[in-house]
Amino acid sequence: MNANENLRNPESSDIANLAAAILRLNDSVSILNSLVRGSIAAKPIYSVKDLSLLLGKSEDSIYKLSRQMPNPLPLRELTGTKRGKYIVHDEFMEWFERATRIVSNASKN
User: Fold this and answer.
1) What distances in angstroms separate CA 86 from CA 17, 24, 38, 64, 79, one per listed residue?
2) Is the distance from CB of 81 to CB of 70 less than 8 angstroms?
3) What is the three-class DSSP state of 66?
4) What is the pLDDT of residues 6-21, one digit of tens each?
């Protein structure tokens, strides 16, 4: 089977390997961002490590937030795996808005 045929008929293991490679690359970008800027840049997917740096909480605390009812942090994992949890940027922002409150009040000047 040549390369073009492989692209048209990917094996499920090829897709899983590609997804895992993308997530590893995403983690590498996170580490580089934190080293270069001292913070996490907006990305399409955040790892638990990203969230830990972003929110200033331990990774254990991030996992606890994913079990906290009634508003659990919606972490995802790759189908067929148990290691590595992630969240899509838009889902994180929706959760963050529900889980936080605005504390500044401009009328108190």
Assistant:
1) 16, 11, 21, 14, 12
2) no
3) helix
4) 556 667 788 888 888 8
pTM, 2 dp: 0.60
If you search the block for the tokens 């996170």, which residue do you land on? Answer: 30
| Residue among 64, 53, 92 nearest 76 (CA) | 92
Around 91, how many Cα atoms within 13 Å sit in the side-chain half-sphere?
15
Q: Could you report the per-residue pLDDT of 17-48, keeping only the tens digit for each?
A: 888 888 888 877 777 766 655 556 678 999 99
Helix (H) or strand (E) holding 47: strand 45-47
